Fold these 2 entries.
Entry 1:
Amino acid sequence: MTIQEYEDKLLQLIDDGIDTATDDELFAGGYLRGHISLAAADCELENESQLSVMQGKVEQSISNAKSELSPSDYVLVCQMWQKVSA
């Protein structure tokens, strides 16, 4: 699977849950979309093709943004990431 295919898969998993998502899940999914797309773009710029590297970039990006989120929102975003990346 390519980075682009993986990004598409992750975003589709988020989109698939929109109809039944809670407000918290909608927030976390929307927030996470940006981190996923940024990580995929970084991988593309670096000619990186390892999915594990992209996953690490998403996780690092979320961690770096921790101060932007309330503690409960940070947990929601982390839980959403675990759900879609599993």
Entry 2:
Amino acid sequence: MDLELVDISEEQIEVLSKVFKGISDPTRLKILKILWDSPKYSYEIESMFDCERSNISKHLRVMLKLGILNVKREGNKSLYSVRMSCIPRVIGCLIPYINDPKYPEIDKN
């Protein structure tokens, strides 16, 4: 049974807000896209970005802390996967709306 929005507690609203903030960063959305279909090692994720490894590590830590991702340690390697399997569905259901020509233009600045 689907939860009605009116049934969501104030505490749940606070946590949801943090999760949405956690996926709102463009780099984090790109990480989710990379992990969408299959788990990846941290070095694989880092190699897909043109920035410092520490920057990607920070984003991974944020998403781990929020429970968005899982990590499995294998010796000195870390294998990341999407824990909140609903997030790709949430993002997927929004794509048709933002692709609609009538969708409001968003300031890109």
